[in-house]
Design brief:
Elements (H helix, E strand, L loop, with lengths): L3 H15 L2 H8 L3 E6 L4 E6 L2 H23 L4 E6 L3 H8 L7 H43 L12
Parallel strand pairs: 2-3
Antiparallel strand pairs: 1-2
Helix pairs in contact: 1-3
Length: about 160
C-alpha cells in the first residue's frame, strides 16, 4: 500500500507529463495535500490563495480527479482549501482594530504611487520599442533610392 506522499508524487509526475510546462508550474507545482481519507476516497489539496483555489475548482478539478484515479485505481473526490500560513495567522492576532487615519492615508498614497510608477515603466518600455521601430523604418526608407510610381487605374 502506497503512502499519500508516494501517491501525490506519482500524481504530480503524471500531471507534469500531460500538461504544458507553464500550466503545470503556474497551477499545480507547489500544491500540497492537506487531508487524505482512503476510506471515504477524499483528498483535500492546499492552494496558495483564494484565486488559485477557485481556478483549480473550476478548471482543473476533473483533471486532478482523473490523475488520482489513474495513479491509485480508485476514484477520489478532490476538494481545495486555502493554505493559511502560520506567520500570517499569528500576525493577524496582533493587528490593531483600527488604523490611524494618517497612516491609512499614507498607505493609500503609497499604493497609488506604486501604480503610477508601474504604469510609467510600462509606457517607458513601449516608447523604447516605438523608437526602435521608427529607427528601423527610417533605415528602410533610406535604403530605397527612389520610390516607384504606381500608375493610376483608368477612370
Amino acid at each position: 500500500m502506497k503512502t499519500i506522499e508516494e501517491i501525490w508524487k506519482d500524481t504530480l509526475e503524471l500531471l507534469q507529463k500531460r500538461m504544458s510546462r507553464s500550466s503545470f508550474e503556474t497551477w499545480i507545482n507547489g500544491l500540497t495535500v492537506q487531508r487524505f481519507d482512503a476510506k471515504k476516497k477524499t483528498i483535500t489539496i492546499n492552494a496558495e490563495n483564494e484565486f488559485t483555489r477557485q481556478w483549480l475548482e473550476t478548471r482543473l478539478k476533473q483533471v486532478l480527479e482523473d490523475a488520482m484515479e489513474e495513479t491509485t485505481g480508485d476514484r477520489y473526490a478532490v476538494s481545495f482549501a486555502v493554505k493559511v500560513k502560520t506567520h500570517i495567522r499569528y500576525s493577524m492576532e496582533r493587528v490593531p482594530t483600527r488604523l490611524d487615519p494618517q497612516e491609512e492615508y499614507q498607505r493609500e498614497n503609497r499604493a497609488l504611487l506604486h501604480e503610477v510608477l508601474d504604469e510609467l515603466k510600462s509606457l517607458h518600455h513601449r516608447l523604447d520599442y516605438f523608437e526602435i521601430e521608427l529607427s528601423n523604418v527610417k533605415k528602410e526608407m533610406k535604403a530605397v533610392k527612389r520610390p516607384t510610381k504606381v500608375p493610376r487605374p483608368p477612370q
